[in-house]
Amino acid sequence: MARVTALKSTQVRAAKTGANPQQAKRPDPTASTYPLLQAAYEFFNARLFEDKLPYCLLTLQRHKGSYGYFAAGRFASRDGKHSTDEVALNPQHFGERTDKDTLSTLAHEQAHVWQQHFGKPPSGVYHNKEWAAKMKEIGLHPSTTGKPGGKETGRQCSHYIIPGGAYDKACDEFLAKHGTALYVEAWREGEAEKKKREKKNASKTKYTCAGCEANAWAKPGVHLICGECSEDMEPAT
Question: How far apart are CA 46 and CA 106, in angstroms?
Fold first, then answer.
């Protein structure tokens, strides 16, 4: 009875203020998603990076082939007085991954923030040895396959969570305190579209040189070497 009374009171207030009563009955997804990500950024900053990382602009971006990305100095204030990095997460993958896995991508990108401001920003390979060392320090093991045994550096590199490591413990603490408010994608690809996409993807794969970042397309599973710098060309993941 109390909940009904409270709901009616909310609707009455909404009517008086001119607000949409339908909004009063539903949670605000924006107001729950971005504050959670900001809280996670600040929590991991304190637990894993000695609270040294500067603020950045957190965004949700669909970015093919990745769980997230870091872009140094991507945005600036309109008057040009301030610039900021971007850390983006790909919401398309929220549903297929656990909350801990999703937030590990945030920590992964924070390692890039750390390198940008306190290490030596890479000029060639995006995921280099300095970044990989920092990742292992915070409890995330770099891997091009996202599993044990993968290469630790390269143009495209994922990671896996080290059991009992710094991130594993920090994330458990964060989720116990804050829970999660991440929304998962409700749209589902139709079977015909899925088969068409899978057939197209199976016919060719994009490869990128780890040195000069030149691109080439070939059948999956082939071994390509860049003709310019003789570096291995890695398949997109």
Answer: 14
